[in-house]
User: What shape does this take?
Amino acid sequence: MYFELKENKPHGTKDDPFSTYHIKNEGRSFQIPVHWHDELEIIYVKSGFLTVSISGENYIGTPGDAFVVSPGNLHFMGSQAGEEDYFTFLFPLEYISFCTDDMLDDKLLTPLKNGHLMIKPRIKDAAKELCEQLAEIYMAKNDEKKLEIAVQIKTKIILLQFILHMWENGFIIENDKSGRNTVEKEMISYIQQSFTGEISLKEFGEQFHLSEKYVSQYFKEHFHITLSKYVTYLRLEHAKQLLQNSDIPVTEVAMLSGYQNVSYFIRSFKKTYGVSPLKYRKNEPSTWI
Assistant: This one.
């Protein structure tokens, strides 16, 4: 089971760049495949046991735990039990910048953004109260279905309190891993640019100086997902976006998403999302995420 990822699209909107995703799973194992983005991400576990991997380090999140993904860091989440309730909060660091080139921007926010500084990935329950406040704002805003200036002010205050808490408690450190994951990120970029066509293991191996036999093993070891499943994930997510944002016929959606066999595309889509492509298009997308 895959949940929607939007690493290839801007999170939030111009009016509200802060994004919250609430994933409450009920008995189905899942993995959100490896990805990265320019925003800072806070992962907050409400219940269950969430597997989190950040820059190659693996963690198990328990209720009340929080993790921070600094901008540009490869990460993924998943669970075998499928009993998780967790939030992710994403925002560009400019969202809490005062745009004055002052000490906060120069010595802290800009170095966090460009990778010279990072927040320790695992912060346990050090920010539980602040994460709860962000979750409450999300639930209230979701119910009201409207954006208010007051909500943004409250959100920014909490995020600044979060950064202050990280700073005062020594969670902000120099990033000695800024060069790590370069090859892995290049691999993901290569696949993201090529997934609608045929990806040859031989060409992929030659691109990254790996033997054809070792490519699949390397990918599985580093990303905890097989290469074929990752390609399938990208193709189906691409198809979802086409179905949601265009009137292109399902047959053409399949072809544009890398499927030469339309029947196989329909079966794969329904197996993953529990609904046919046509029915997905006719209903609100949130119903099927």
Summary: The longest strand covers residues 40-47.
